[in-house]
Amino acid sequence: MNRAMLDLWVGAFVALGFAALMFLAMQVADVSSEGTRGATITLYARFDDIGGLKVKAPVKSAGVVVGRVTAIRFDPNVYQAEVEMRVSAAYPFPKDTIAAILTSGLLGEQYIGLAAGADVEMLEDGDRIQMTQSALVLEKLIGQFLFNQAADGGGK
Amino acid sequence: MIRLLRALGRLTVDGVWQVGFATRFLFVMLRHSGPSFARFSLTIRELYFSGVLSLVIIVVSGAFVGMVLGLQGYDTLQRFGSESALGSIVALSLLRELGPVVAALLFASRAGSAVTAEIGLMKATEQLTAMDMMAVNPIARVVAPRFWGGVLSMPLLAAIFSTVGVIGGWFIGVVVIGVDNGTFWSQMANSVDFREDVMNGVVKSFVFGWAVSLIAVFQGYDCTPTAEGVSRAITKTVVYSSLTVLALDFILTSFMYIGK
């Protein structure tokens, strides 16, 4: 095996290795769509109950991903969860936008859904979304259902 | 009784002595690593032997591991009606565990054993001593390039293994079984994090590359210079590096994913 062939093979091997890494980065981990492309603004929202929401969960509006959840904290002053999210600056939302924690599918992952309001002023970097809707917790829902059943039964 | 205790004592002393010798050997090798980078053609030759020639076994086993993951993952997931998560299962198990670990095991038995055999035979035929006589340091000339060839090719082989595995899983899941193509990739991209999963896999395979290459060159250099000694050294290389890889994998995993 002469020197040139050796170099060629090793070069091809190294190139293949890096191509594999690129594939893993681009196609499998999808670095480019992590969060959102381009400039983002940070928004905050307080929820009574975030259910199973996790950091890096998508923020969607009308089903389209417009941002990501970047941090979740517990605020001991108001006993609520404070969610920090980065939303693409390309999509300005009105000030009276409603943030709700929704679930994709019956048992799917939870995400934040933004429903745009009608205000003429837009949310800016660092703003807080005032109107929020907590996650549906199945146990609470069942509890409420049973309670209503019992109330109905008692009325008869 | 006394004899039993003595045997136990000898076993312990020998073990500790070997670990110490291997550590000193590592530092000596690192100190004499200059030539393997200054005269990079030495290392390129080793990259060819341990990297390029391992490609076939890595690609073939990667494809089969990925296809089996596709089949088994689908079989389990469809019981819960969540076949759409097939992409994440295949990608996560390959990137986090199977890619680095299986690639390292294959690497140890394919390339590590060859390195041990080569160095051991050089020692048995007194080529290493001859080099020493000619004022050529055998560690700098023979051992260090083989070590660095292994260290450099291991992460690349693991990345190729994972990639081929993902494609194998995609082939079974999407082409053969008929999971939706878009769901497969988007679920995968949603659950795989670049730093958390891809880079941690690369770090793992890098560590395994160090461990396997060190064991391979050390066993070759340390072997008894007879035919039997060389064959025992090769067996030791494969056994020790497999055990080391599995143990290191447990330690690394517990630090990377559980300890936070």
Automatic annotation (TrEMBL), chain A:
Limits of the Mce/MlaD domain: 40-117
Domain of life assignment: Bacteria
Lineage, highest ranks first: Bacteria, Pseudomonadati, Pseudomonadota, Hydrogenophilia, Hydrogenophilales
Name of the protein in its database record: Outer membrane lipid asymmetry maintenance protein MlaD
InterPro entries given in the database record: ABC_MlaD (IPR030970), Mce/MlaD (IPR003399), MlaD_Phospholipid_Transporter (IPR052336)
Automatic annotation (TrEMBL), chain B:
Membrane topology classification: Multi-pass membrane protein
InterPro entries in the record: ABC_MlaE_roteobac, MlaE_Permease, Permease_MalE
Predominant place of localization: membrane
Keyword Nucleus: no
Pfam families tied to this protein: MlaE (PF02405)
Biological role: Part of the ABC transporter complex MlaFEDB, which is involved in a phospholipid transport pathway that maintains lipid asymmetry in the outer membrane by retrograde trafficking of phospholipids from the outer membrane to the inner membrane. Probably responsible for the translocation of the substrate across the membrane.
Name this protein carries in UniProt: Intermembrane phospholipid transport system permease protein MlaE
Source organism per UniProt: Tepidiphilus baoligensis
